[in-house]
Amino acid sequence: MQMTDQKEIAADPATVYAALLDPEVLKACVPGAQEVTGTPEEGFEAKVTQKVGPVKATFKGQVSLSDLVENETLTISGEGKGGAAGFAKGGAVVTLAPSETGTLLSYEVEAKVGGKLAQLGSRIIDGFAKKMADQFFANLQAHLAPEEAGADDGPQEEGDKKGWFSKVTGRG
To answer: Is the whole-model pTM more than 0.85?
Structure first.
């Protein structure tokens, strides 16, 4: 499976880069992550539970980082085993570039799956991988947003949500 995409993150490249190297941020952002430990220098160990189609499994895996260029690029390599569900292994090259609204994050992923997961077919696996990536970056944006938001932004957003809710439900 191969996948490439770009995401706009409303934070500067240094903040995004630091977040991608922080095990606590990764635990908060990786969908289904139960545990993420380690360091960028020695690699990370992770425990993630996911359901792909009819297959639900807890994967335990290792992730290593290489080709680190601070605030610009990094390469991620890893593999995980999910018992009878199978395995996944692969890597990604992540590039960060300053943009008008923060950081343009680009990634190229190449991955292989085996076992029951591989039997699901590439359409299901590809769709699941895209969904996971989108969810990760939405979580990352939400995690980084409070640092970038000004003090006045919080109540205004809350008001917008209340206004939207009021319009939908007719309640004020």
So the answer is: no
Q: Which residues pair with 93 in a beta bridge?
A: 75, 108
CA dist 124 → 26, 48, 75, 129, 137 (Å) = 24, 19, 26, 9, 20
pLDDT band at 146 (very low <50, low <70, confident <90, very high): low
Cα separation, 152 vs 74, in Å, equals 35
Q: What residue type is 138 in one-letter code?
A: A
Output 124-133 pairs: Cβ under 8 A, ≥24 positions apart: 124/52, 124/53, 125/1, 125/52, 126/1, 126/3, 128/52, 128/53, 129/1, 129/3, 130/3, 130/5, 132/31, 132/50, 133/3, 133/5, 133/107, 133/109
Q: How does residue 122 score in pLDDT terms, banded at 50, 70 and 90? A: confident
Burial of 166 (0-12, 13-18, 19+ CB in 10 A): exposed
Please check the confidence at residue 53 and state whether its pLDDT lies above 70.
yes
